[in-house]
Amino acid sequence: MMQNIKLGILASHYGSNLQAILDACDLGEIQAEVSVVISNNSNSMALKRSNKKNIPGFHISNHTHPNFLLQDKEIKKILKKHKVNLVILAGYMKKLGPEVLKYFHKKIINIHPSLLPKYGGKGMYGANVHREVIKSNEKFTGISIHIVEEEYDSGPIIAQIKISIDKNDNVDSLNKKVSSIEHKFYVKTIQEIISGKINLNNL
């Protein structure tokens, strides 16, 4: 069991996974606390959600730091300052830089709406993924939680869940199917990492 776990959440837009994690921490379903939220979007709902809970929230983007490497250094500095042990990407649309990836090696996780390694990579998020899955006449889709590495969606798989596709499914209905499971699956997996049931160092 990991002790005194502090989560650092990175989110770009609505922050529904962030909210699910905050709620789960309040209920004791995740035995940890969210100590900081970082967004590359100053108007993101994620920052509003963190503000509502009095959790420090930071906007880091090209508007605050002129280049990717300076943003990388600042993100690392903030995560370290808030004593983060586990970094969680919750709809964060930017690549992470080398300093963050090195310092938090095997301590950064992400959730993706497909059965990776299928339908991952640059530009593959949300409706784009579901569109490609349907176009390819897949019988199943799913959700993957993985360790974050340099390339999009490329790290070792931590957990996956399979979702069957009906012949009448479209992008919207598939999105609803995946979204209805996503939050609970992320919460469950995060707690399994914290409890030691899943050991990221072994992946």
List the helices and strands and how they pair.
Elements: E1 6-10, H1 16-27, E2 33-39, H2 45-52, E3 57-59, H3 68-81, E4 86-89, H4 98-103, E5 108-112, H5 126-135, E6 140-147, E7 157-164, H6 171-195
Parallel strand pairs: 1-2, 1-4, 2-3, 4-5
Antiparallel strand pairs: 5-6, 6-7
Helix pairs in contact: 1-6, 5-6
Descriptive account of the structure:
By secondary structure, this protein is an alpha/beta fold. The protein has a domain at 6-112 and 144-154 and 182-202: Formyl transferase, N-terminal domain (Rossmann fold). Helix content is 37%, strand content 20%. The protein is built from 6 helices and 7 strands, in the order βαβαβαβαβαββα. The protein has a 7-stranded mixed β-sheet, with helices on both faces. The longest helix has 25 residues, at 171-195.
Q: Please report which band the strand proportion falls in: under 5%, 5-15%, 15-25%, 25-35%, 35-45% or over 45%.
A: 15-25%
The tally of strands reads 7
Quick one: biggest sheet?
Answer: 7 strands, mixed
Overall outline: globular
The CATH topology annotation of one domain reads as Rossmann fold
As laid out across the biggest beta sheet, the strand order is 3-2-1-4-5-6-7
